[in-house]
Amino acid sequence: MQLTIENLSKTYPGGVRALDQVSLTIPTGMFGLLGPNGAGKSTLMRILATLQNADSGLVRLGDIDVLRDRVGVRKILGYLPQEFGVYPRVSAVRLLTHLAALKGVGTNGRDRKLVVESLLERVNLSDVRDKAVSTYSGGMRQRFGIAQALLGDPRLLIVDEPTAGLDPGERNRFYNLLAEVGENIIVILSTHIVQDVKELCKNMAIIHRGKLLFDGAPSDGEQELAGRVWARSMTKQELVERPWQYPILSTKLVAGTPYVRVYSESDPGHGFKLSEPDLEDVFFSFLSRA
Question: Three-class SS of residue 4?
Fold first, then answer.
């Protein structure tokens, strides 16, 4: 199964164009969605999750017309928004059982219980199954979110900024789980963390101001930039008074000294040395040229 998006557009009242003729083909596996705040990522995901209407375009998930057959989509959809609420005193097992019943999972209570227990085991929450979800840590709560999103064996899983606020250990555990899930279904991952997309996703897209800037494998984006990324350390004063006009891709402090990477088709001089491009360079280079 694959997800096909053709010329998808959405304009909000006031003339804000959230999506502008976006076309993508997303196969089975992990697909990364990158873009700054306000780029249109959340609008795209809400449309795919049948929570919002598009103005025009076509979206097909296998044989299902996503924009017209919302009921059909929801039968095979899992969705984990950036933030989700829970009942304050309800345990994980009770809440997941309730959600399973609402989604029509299992033909009877016994079957439903087996599904719920299996999902809690899969996301490593069995030991805290009887604790209220509202008392969970950020990582535990996100794992519960994945469990509810996996109810009904979805063929499409949409995950929006899932690791915001998680410590590195929790983030790694969460992504290991997501990578396992993504072996057999379509997983769309929206994140601000560029390195996560490189490590997890075979394919990706960059969206900015509603437009699709890049669509392909992370390695393809890096290859496109080969020979065009230059870097050097410099003082803060040099950075402020820079005499060059080349787009700055990134500026980082290394031992208190700015380390600057720029985009240039040829040697920019001024002491810059050719550098191996990474996915962060790809991201900022497309934004700087948009």
Answer: strand
- The model's pLDDT over 141-167, given as tens digits with 9 standing for 90+, comes to 888 988 899 998 899 999 988 777 677
Q: Does 178 share its domain with 273?
A: no
274 and 138 within one domain: no
**Number of structural domains in the chain:** 2
pLDDT in tens, 4-41: 999 999 999 988 999 999 999 999 999 999 998 888 99
Residues 42 and 119 in one domain: yes
Question: Residues 207, 77: one domain?
Answer: yes
Amino acid residing at 211: K
18, 57 Cβ separation under 8 angstroms: no
- 228 and 189 within one domain: no
pLDDT of 138 above 90: no
Distance of CA 21 to the CA centre of its chain: 20
Question: Is 145 in a helix, a strand, or coil?
Answer: helix
At 274, give phi and psi (nearest 5°).
-60, 135
The reply to whether 46 and 112 lie within a common domain is: yes
159 and 207 assigned to the same domain: yes
Cα dist from 174 to 12, 143, 200, 234, whole Å? 34, 7, 12, 38
Write out the residue range of the structural domain in which residue 205 sits. 3-217
CB under 8 Å, gap of 24 or more: what pairs does 66-74 form?
A: 73/156, 74/50
- Residue 47 has φ and ψ, to the nearest 5°, of -65, -45
pTM score above 0.85? yes
Q: What is the pLDDT of residues 66-105, one digit of tens each?
A: 999 999 999 899 998 877 777 778 999 999 999 998 888 8
Do 192 and 125 fall within a single domain? yes
